[in-house]
Design a protein that fits this description.
Blueprint (H helix, E strand, L loop, with lengths): L12 H15 L8 H7 L2 E5 L8 E3 L2 H10 L13 E7 L10 E6 L9 E4 L10 E4 L5 E6 L3 E4 L5 E2 L11 E4 L1
Parallel strand pairs: 1-4
Antiparallel strand pairs: 1-2, 3-4, 3-6, 5-10, 6-9, 7-8, 7-10
Length: 176
Amino acid sequence: MKARAINPRPRPLVAAASVLTILISLLIGGVGSATADEIRASNAHCVLDVSLRDSAPQCYRTFDQAQDSAQHHSGARQPSNAAASVVLAVLYNYSNWQASGGTLTLTGNTGCGGGGYWTNNFAGGFNDWANSVETYNGCGIVLWEHANLAGRNTGYLTSSSDLGWANNITSSWQIW
């Protein structure tokens, strides 16, 4: 990891307060309706259960915390009658699957090999945000330029280190 140069210019108080608000909200569990700029400023690592209707992302300070949360909700740690939760895809804010810029992990109650299928619009600060993606458990993903699966799309992806024309402009997705 490269060291960042420290900017000697003071940041405006409003920007500092905004970042502080995001960091505090991450410490207590989520960023709620944070904007894409706020998500980027905090480098949040969020988990979204796509099998739950109107689910909100739960965000964490580190990628490891987010992945632990996603795995904590797996069937291995739940009662035997609970539906298992599995990782379907991880979207990254930076190209080349760099977690340092923030991530969005999509989980569901089944892998895609069993016919799982979900669609959704990006929300909670993840609209126009992704730059790379990796899928798991038999899933593929299509990212769309506009909400409600409109505009250009990436085609079916299982892994992409750089979304090219779709970097930072995808607004909805399909996963199956």
